[in-house]
Amino acid sequence: MEAGGSAEILARPIGIVSHxxxxxxxMMTPTEREYVITQFAQTRDLVKQTFGGLSAPxxxxxxxxxxxxxxxxxxxxxxxxxxxxAGIERLLQQPPDPAKRPAMTDEQIVAIVxxxxxxxxxxxxxxxxxxxxxxxxxxxxxxxxxxxxxxxxASDGDLRRRFLPHYLYGDFDCYQWLVLxxxxxxxxxxxxxxxxxSPGFPR
Length: 203
Description:
CATH architecture: Up-down Bundle
Oligomer: single chain
Low-confidence stretches: 1-25
Strand order of the largest sheet: 1-2
């Protein structure tokens, strides 16, 4: 190491490292990383609690009032988690965009996405299409969540200056998409609990 190299490293602010594109890289802070890892664990357990032990007729049941079945809600979670993870991986191979700003704060994403206030129509690419049999849905979610959890635990990428557009709300940075995934799980678990509570749900 050249003289003064170690002093330069120690002088860098926490969470910022040298970037191959010639600018600083903004990493997750320890607090941010702990938050998403904890939320991923909590919502993984919530998904197991919501969908685990349901029979195929229970998973496939649709209430008379309309809306998705529990299976469709779970398939949607899998599809979105996989698409978001692939999008983040793709963006990390490209230069960041420091000129962009997120459309809302992390807290607003949790508040808006995590609660069922009114139905929101998913974009066509995220709609459930029965691509897995009911008994395979929970294992597929586990596989997808394992990947995102491992990524959140180990990533040193510049997540705050790379953006993916949300089809309704505008641009979110890649860290915010990790936040969204857990809030999204809470939303669709709540919707599935409503299905399970409907009068015609198989017992």
